[in-house]
């Protein structure tokens, strides 16, 4: 943290929380029509529920349920076993991959425009996430990189976010090796060390207007 936030961390956290609640509340209200249309589209496209939740690692290493719109077939976990053999990380946990055959036709579009992540505004209101912060990773990936990258656990010093500094620089999508994760980690730690409300607002603006922020969205 820097500036006023560094001198008064409690004040900085309170200001960030206010910003989160205001933006998440407005976002949920404005996204109701989009979520409604997406829900109908999902139900018409494939069998299964509209929403999906998965365990993620959050602030101070605590686990929480991260909410999303369902973008995969209902038996995605079973299909994952077959895809592990074609994954670039053969000896590690299965990460997301481009052209994943488990993604539904609707899911491709929901992911491309990050509409599937709108339910995470609920996580923000609950206090488990922030609008801006390092993206939360699956439990297996977190355990893997805590062991392989010495500074990785520092990501948990702040709440995970719906968007982040790494994402607006295009570091999202498939992880093929430790170097890819290292690049993402460097940006996450820059955010942890240099957080300010102005940086949050800059990241939110870039998320909306920058094509780089939408690259590798699958």
Largest sheet: 2 strands, antiparallel
- Which descriptor suits the 3D outline? globular
- Unreliable runs: none
Averaged pLDDT: 86
Give the beta-strand count. 4
Radius of gyration: 17 Å
Number of helices: 9
Structural class: mainly alpha
> What's the number of domains?
1
Order of helices and strands: HHEEHHHEHEHHH
Give the N-terminus to C-terminus distance in angstroms. Answer: 31 Å
User: What share of the residues lie within helices?
Assistant: 40-55%
Q: What fraction strand?
A: 5-15%
User: What order do the strands of the largest sheet run in, or round the barrel if closed?
Assistant: 1-2
Topology, pairings included?
Elements: H1 3-7, H2 9-45, E1 51-57, E2 63-69, H3 76-83, H4 105-112, H5 120-126, E3 130-132, H6 139-148, E4 161-163, H7 165-168, H8 178-194, H9 197-209
Parallel strand pairs: 3-4
Antiparallel strand pairs: 1-2
């Amino acid at each position: 943290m820097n500036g006023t936030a560094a001198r008064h961390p409690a004040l900085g956290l309170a200001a960030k929380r206010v910003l989160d609640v205001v933006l998440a509340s407005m976002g949920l209200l404005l996204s109701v029509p989009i979520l409604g249309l997406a829900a109908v589209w999902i139900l018409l496209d494939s069998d299964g529920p509209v929403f999906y939740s998965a365990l993620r690692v959050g602030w101070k290493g605590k686990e929480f349920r991260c909410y999303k719109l369902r973008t995969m077939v209902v038996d995605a976990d079973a299909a994952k076993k077959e895809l592990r053999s074609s994954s670039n990380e053969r000896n590690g946990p299965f990460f997301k991959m481009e052209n994943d055959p488990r993604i539904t036709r609707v899911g491709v579009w929901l992911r491309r425009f990050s509409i599937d992540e709108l339910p995470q505004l609920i996580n923000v209101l609950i206090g488990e996430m922030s609008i801006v912060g390092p993206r939360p990773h699956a439990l297996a990936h977190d355990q893997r990189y805590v062991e392989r990258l010495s500074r990785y656990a520092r990501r948990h010093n702040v709440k995970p976010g719906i968007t982040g500094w790494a994402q607006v620089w295009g570091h999202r999508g498939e992880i093929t090796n430790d170097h890819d994760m290292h690049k993402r980690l460097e940006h996450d730690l820059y955010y942890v060390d240099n957080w300010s409300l102005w940086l949050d607002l800059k990241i939110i603006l870039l998320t909306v207007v920058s094509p780089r922020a939408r690259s590798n969205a699958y």
